[in-house]
Amino acid sequence: MGFGDYPAEYNPKVHGVYDPARFYGKPDTPLSQVKINELGAWFGRRNKSPSAVVAACSRAWWRWQHKYMQPKRSTMAPYFQLIVGSMVFFYAINYGKMKNHRNYKYH
């Protein structure tokens, strides 16, 4: 699968119009329904290649887009989510500089 190509599992005659937020591979048990003793086998069936991780992130991005950004009557929720996400990100990358400025009690 190259950049911009459809997934190999996608068949337009079976699946219809392509949806970037949908997984077209073989369906498996959802994580919420996996029992503890089956967890190792479930993780073993996952595709852990870099392209699979990028595809999963892309599907998550499109699901978020379809749910929050692209409805006809969108609310302020996606903008607040982006603001809070960027605040957490910048706090995490600047934590090393900020931890030196803590106020300690010396008694």
Question: What does the overall shape look like?
Answer: extended
Major sheet summary line? none
Computed CA radius of gyration, to the nearest angstrom: 21 Å
Report the span from N to C terminus. Answer: 63 Å
Overview of this structure, please?
The structure is a single chain. Helices cover 49% and strands 0% of the residues. The chain is extended and about 70 Å long. It is built from 4 helices and no strands. The protein is mostly helical and 107 residues long.
Descriptive tags:
107 residues; mainly alpha; extended
Brief sketch in words of this structure:
The protein is mainly alpha-helical. The chain has four helices and no strands.
List the helices and strands and how they pair.
Layout (H helix, E strand, L loop, with lengths): L11 H4 L23 H6 L5 H20 L7 H22 L9
